[in-house]
């Protein structure tokens, strides 16, 4: 599987959907880097208190703002609805605001969706050995994946990876009601019900100094497991 070559030009038929909450420290850089390949980006500001929305707008992203904090699932659904209703994009790419996702992985996943005519491409950090999540985080994430696979009937290696490419016909089947981390299982469940073809694609998750300083990665891993169990 090859990456989109650097001279292939911008990807015009895909929109990045970036949910954000208090990510102003890194957000401008994340959007600027993403827009070199994906000129169309919509950020959903989930009632940030640090000016994240203004940063997103200055960086060239379209911006939708929640008046109250509703959770990442709600922010994703708002962004997906925006793309479906306001654009003619063929693909939605869900992408994190904290710098852990790589643009080149997203581009390769869009290319694979086109070339293999699949409706969903799930990013997976466990298909190769590049991502080093740490033993505890790996155990927690693998536990959540096992539970998700039991609930959805799919056999994914990394069901809670936020990097996904979703073709328009598949995105139209998403109506997320889970606002916390359980939305990741809900997305998989609803996409599985479309019966549209899917694949997993190996990606590198970059655990940055910023995300580690926030304690985000491990805390989110624990939240994923808890919310998956009680969903």
What can you tell me about this protein's structure?
The chain is an alpha/beta fold. Helices cover 44% and strands 15% of the residues. It has nine helices and seven strands; from the N terminus they run βαβαβαβαβαβααβαα. Helix 1 runs parallel beside helix 2 (52-58) and helix 5 (135-152) packs parallel to helix 9. The longest helix is centred in the middle third of the chain and has 18 residues, at 135-152. It is globular and about 40 Å long. The model is unreliable at 1-7 (pLDDT under 50).
In short:
With 231 residues, the protein is an alpha/beta fold. The protein has one domain (14-230): Spore Coat Polysaccharide Biosynthesis Protein SpsA, Chain A (Alpha-Beta Complex).
Give a quick set of tags describing it.
single chain; 231 residues; alpha/beta; Spore Coat Polysaccharide Biosynthesis Protein SpsA, Chain A; 7-stranded mixed beta sheet; 44% helix
CATH topology: Spore Coat Polysaccharide Biosynthesis Protein SpsA, Chain A
Give the number of domains: 1
Average pLDDT rating: 85
Tell me the fraction of residues in β-strands, as a range.
Answer: 5-15%
Structural class: alpha/beta
| CATH homology group | Spore Coat Polysaccharide Biosynthesis Protein SpsA, Chain A
SSE order: EHEHEHEHEHEHHEHH
- State the separation between the terminal residues, measured CA to CA: 35 Å
Give the low-confidence spans. 1-7
Q: Tell me the major beta sheet.
A: 7 strands, mixed
